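Protocol step 4 of 5: obtain the predicted structure for the target chain.
Materials: sequence only (see below). No template structures provided, no constraints applied. The aim of this step is simply to have a reference model before the mutagenesis design in step 5. Sequence pasted as it appears in the construct record:
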Amino acid sequence: MVTTRICALGLSSSLMLGMAALDVAAVEILETLDSYTLENNALEQINSVSQFRDVFPGDWAFEALRNLSDRYNCIVGYPNGTYRGDRTMSRYEFAAGLNACLGQIERLLQDNNFAFREDLEILTRLMDEFAEELAVLGTRVDGLEGRVAFLEDHQFSTTTKLRGEVMFAASGVFGNEKADGSGDAIDSNIVFNDRVRLNFDTSFTGRDLLRVRLDALNPVPFAIPVTGTNMTRLAAQRNNNNDFDIGKLFYRVPISKKFRLHLDATGGRYNFNVDNFNRFFANGFTGSISRFGRFNPIYIQGAGGGGVTGNYKFSDSLSFSLGYLARNASDAEDGLFNGSYAALAQLDIAPSDRFRLGLTYVRAYYPAGEAFVSGVTGTRLANAPFGTLPTSADHFGFQSSFRVSPDFTLSGWAGLTRARAETSGTSFGGTSVNQSDRATIFNWAISLAFPDVGKENSLLGFVIGNPPRVTDNDSGLTNSDTSWHLEAFYRYPLTDNISINPGFLVVLNPEGSSDNDPIYVGTIRTVFRF
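Step 4 output (structure tokens):
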């Protein structure tokens, strides 16, 4: 067949009208998105405009478009770059592919290149056949362009996103006497508190993250002043009287494909910087209701400080982290190295997608009056085994998580601490302490997570364990009995952004003494996320 080549000046009016119907670049974006959906859900669901597949590989239009695709290399919507000539298409998919070829041929003509007359005739026929679908796609593009323009005019920032969480909580603590031996009764009033968290997340490269977090909260800490023990502390019980302050400021950046650096200016927490192997329970808004139930207290060391953490990923199954946090990093007297600090090393091992474990070591130092040995969990003695004397400690942690099934994850940890008195002096009750005296502190817990119980994105959780207690002490002060932490909570999503989270906690033998009565804590949290 003799062919005649036609330049751009001779382009038929029907072809020009067809090209005016659509914005080529926008439709190619739609085509890519629809094709990606089909790539991943070919046997499950179809999210294109039409739910029907009515353009078959044997149709004349299908074969005509495939020939154009082969000749002009204009079908670019599928992620793997193939046209999939053996798969039935919807008419809207076909129209998107047709538009891509129209755009390719138009560019050739505008560059004073040439196209075959019979190809233009085929295009004209195809455009007539699929005119309705092309018009619908044009409407979709116009709608998307309008939405994009609106977002550009009203966006908060081109680089920063605002994410927020608000929690209202009605909480109460119940029991007979405080666990401090005073004989005072526990005030069992119900309190209503709130917590607001605003995250300003900024990315400069698309892979890094600069976060400024503002916190405002007013909870009543269910700790020693209220119950005589820190074992009853809830997950979110720092109180700034609802005055916004900077709760966290950090910058996280990947140095390479395997190495990531995390720089904390203030509010640093190891449970955020490294894997804590208790992901269902770690969040202070929607996870465990208690401070102890969130994760191994070893991750609380250095909390609130500034420093650096590095994560190196050897492979998908092995990674290693090193970190250093100073609790008073911005203080002129203490700085990074003269005050309280915690240096961490952790090895993460993942033999499979379902099973992970971690080996963690923290070396910590606490100046006089700043004891933080158990992260304000467990007994008072476990947090300050030598009273207000300067103390150092070696913390060892073993954590693991096993996803038994999609509906059940079993996690747990064990923690051992060897604390050392750095000077001689007196501890609680005037007990004499010699420099280099040692104390042993132990804790463990098991958590059971049941996601999607009753509703998708819900969570039923249980925690059982022994909070930190002193089992041996050269100065003679120990906790004679084992305390038990028993916790249950349920997160029920009302909508995608609102959930209700009731929870209940009981502590048996609080402060490590069977002479103390059980203490009960209940809370109902309503969480709004945006």
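Step 4 remarks: Residues 1-52 have pLDDT under 50 and may be disordered. The chain is about 20% helix and 35% strand.
Proceed to step 5.
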